[in-house]
Amino acid sequence: MSIWSLGRQGDPTSRGDDELRMIPQWSIVLAIVLFVAMQYVFHVVMPHHKHELLPLRLMMSYAWGTLLASYALLLGYVSRDVKRRGMSPGLWMLMCVVLPGGIGAVVYFLLRQPVLSKCPNCATSIAATYHYCPQCQFQMAPVCGTCHRGVKITDVYCTQCGHDLAQDGAPARLRSYSD
Ligand SMILES: [Zn+2]
Ligand SMILES: [Zn+2]
Asked: How deeply is 11 buried, as exposed, middle or buried, from its count of CB atoms within 10 A (0-12, 13-18, 19+)?
């Protein structure tokens, strides 16, 4: 069994929407609340002096509000992203909150694991580098029929052993590319 025999699952064109849906509603609400709270702090709570400049106060409140709002959205993104990569949500959320100035988030983006996908046959979580599902042998990526290393769908010959991939038929190559 292979991914090609089940038709076009996991259409890659839907990726952009998925990224937007990665920001949960609570973090959008938190971002708005933080932004409004900053305006309140700068314009109401902080004492007004006689000779201060209003534009400066407006700029400061806007800058701090935007900064905190972006941070809330970032936290929301990380909280969902961490799950689809099979990493520990508690640990990484703590890192992002505790480390100052967004350093935790930078560390997260440097160290995060590749996105896990699901086996279309048995729904086991699968890393992007797997060629076969470890639970049911479902083929996830095109491989050479002789040396079983990964090949590109458009390759005619295996780059490792020179095997003629047309002899394998599907799934080593997509049907539309085969003769
Ligand atoms: Zn499977
Ligand atoms: Zn080969």
From this structure: exposed
